[in-house]
Amino acid sequence: MNKHILIVEDDPAISNLIKIHLNMVGYETTQIFNGLEVLTALKNPIFDLILLDVMLPGLDGFSLLNHIKPLHIPVIFLTAKNAITDKVMGLQSGAEDYIVKPFEAVELLARIEVVLRRYTPNDSILHFKHLTIDEDKRIVKNQEQIIELTLKEFDLLVLLIKNKDMALSREYLLERIWGYEYMGETRTIDTHIQKLRKKLDLTDAIKTIYKIGYRLEE
């Protein structure tokens, strides 16, 4: 069964654009444009994830989140408010992620996939080409040989594998692996990518996407 995503966005143009991209990759969608209408929809929730604008008519996103949390439905905030205090507030209030407008569709889709995987039980063993990755034990094997990776290299590898065939921006990788408070430069990503390519023989698999970031290809 396809995942069902609720889009709560008061701008019809933005909402429709999000809907198009989600439908293209197989998600079912419902659109709501007013915060108060969300309360009615939550009486019989059928949603696997909610994309929630912060500034809404009727009832704002932060207030709505208090009604959503008891239902254990993951929420990703979509907002034009880019102050770090707003972002921290959103994450600390219980949202799974916080995306500032404008954003690229590929980044939104990647973040949705990450959150949905977090809420979907799955095996901790990942496989990619000649590699076997045990997430729980944090062990990477090339055939039967254990390859030593740093904590960040391991997390970066897992993120790439879980989002294979998707272009991920350097900024997105920095935020997911190093955290939103990280103040370093995006060249940190380039350095870690080079190490992964060398250590794991992934030179041909990890593609550089010009002016964007990287994509792991099967």
Describe this structure in words.
The chain is an alpha/beta fold. The protein is built from 8 helices and 12 strands. It has helices at about 10-25, 35-40, 60-70, 85-90, 105-120, 150-160, 170-180, 185-200, and strands spanning about 5-10, 30, 50-55, 75-80, 95-100, 125-130, 130-135, 140, 145, 170, 205-210, 215. The protein has a 5-stranded parallel beta sheet, sandwiched between helices. A 4-stranded antiparallel beta sheet has the order 6-7-8-9, with helices on one face. Strands 10-12-11 form a 3-stranded antiparallel beta sheet. Helix 6 (about 150-160) packs across helix 7 and helix 6 packs across helix 8 (about 185-200). It is elongated, with a radius of gyration of 18 Å. The mean pLDDT is about 85.
Tell me what portion of residues adopts beta-strand conformation: 15-25%
Spatial order of strands in the largest sheet = 2-1-3-4-5
Q: Give Rg in angstroms.
A: 18 Å
Shape designation: elongated
Instruction: State the order of secondary-structure elements, H for helix, E for strand.
Output: EHEHEHEHEHEEEEHEHHEE
Q: Based on helices, strands and strand pairing, what is the structural class?
A: alpha/beta
Please report the total strand number as a whole number.
12
End-to-end distance? 25 Å
Helix content: 25-40%
Main β-sheet description: 5 strands, parallel
DSSP helical segment count: 8
Which stretches are low in confidence, meaning pLDDT under 50 for 5 or more residues running?
A: none
Mean pLDDT across all residues, rounded?
87
